[in-house]
Design brief:
- By secondary structure, this protein is mainly α.
- It has one domain: Ribonuclease iii, N-terminal Endonuclease Domain, Chain A, CATH 1.10.1520.10.
- It is 72% helix and 0% strand.
Length: 123
Amino acid sequence: MNLLELNVLVLAYMGDSIYEKYVREKLIRDGIGNVNDLQSKSIMYVSAKAQAKYIQEMIDNGMLEDFEKNIVKRARNNRSNSHPKNCDIITYKYATGLEALIGYLYLSGNNNRIDEIMNYILR
């Protein structure tokens, strides 16, 4: 299967779960032992607004390879117009771009690159 031909929303679907796993693990390793606290702290990383901020920082700082930027761009330009009520469509599309990138990297077996990106986000 050519992952670059896969629907970017399918990549984002996969990436969302991988992203969330990294965030949850980091918070637990930080010693947070209360589920309510874990949930409230995770918002700093998993909200569309936070995800959009992180992917934009990585783009602005030249951290992404061209093919990675293309995955983000494909997801951002996807024709879907649905988005949560609590954020605008542009923010949501950038967040989807980050999730699609993580999904692509995971499905291609590039866990080292996921680690680099998530270490930047969770610094």
